[in-house]
Amino acid sequence: MESFIASIRLVAATMLICVAGYSAAVWAVGQVLMPGSAQGSLIAAADGKVIGSSQVAQNFTEPRYFWPRPSAVDYNGAGAGGSNKSPTSTDIADRARETVARYGATAENPLPAELAAASGAGLDPHISERGALYQAARVAQARGLPQAGVEALIHEHAFAPGAFLAPDRLVNVLELNLALDRVETAG
User: Fold this and answer.
1) What is the pLDDT of residues 12-64, one digit of tens each?
2) Which residues span the membrane?
């Protein structure tokens, strides 16, 4: 019986250290070293209301906004993941055709592949700078802004995630759309 009680104490101590202690330590390190990321990288509107996260894509469909990559999970953060469909699936091909048609792509003006294909998690908040520039004319026209100004805003918000290791610069779609809203209200 004595060894049984010792075993229970050991299990309790191990759980306390490994579950509660480790979790608390990781949480504390996150709060100190990366408080924004630890809190979900939330983005708030001017009135302080949280409107999204810089780490999760949102579905923008109005022509006045830049559109993110397609999502196999309908931009639902709780169900992140791919569609698990084969690249030869007719569903995938049909969705790609619909997306290409939605953008009005032609043989002379082909759609960047990333804008027709969902990311692995279905929640990628970024598109390439090239993908954003592809949409600039539509967004500028819908907002009544000069295309050069919209393109300048894209370049301003583009960043290289891996410095010299990443071939393409990326743009966060939500942050770019919010910047456009600020430009529109200021102008």
Assistant:
1) 889 888 888 888 888 888 788 877 777 778 877 778 888 788 788 888 989 99
2) 10-30
User: d(Cα 133, Cα 112) in Å, to the nearest integer?
Assistant: 10
| 10, 86: one domain | no
Q: Which residue has the tokens 């101590």?
A: 13
- Cα R_g (the chain), whole angstroms: 22
DSSP 135-153: HHHHHHHHHT--HHHHHHH
The count of structural domains within the chain is 2
CA-nearest of 41, 45, 68, 65 to 57 is: 68
pTM: 0.78
Structural domain including 88 reads: 40-186
> CA 181, CA 178: separation in Å to the nearest integer?
5
C-alpha closest to that of 58 among 177, 160, 154: 177
Same domain, 106 and 125: yes
Specify whether the backbone of 75 is left (phi greater than 0), alpha (psi in -120 to 50) or beta. Answer: left
Closest to 117 measured CA to CA, from 127, 106, 130: 127
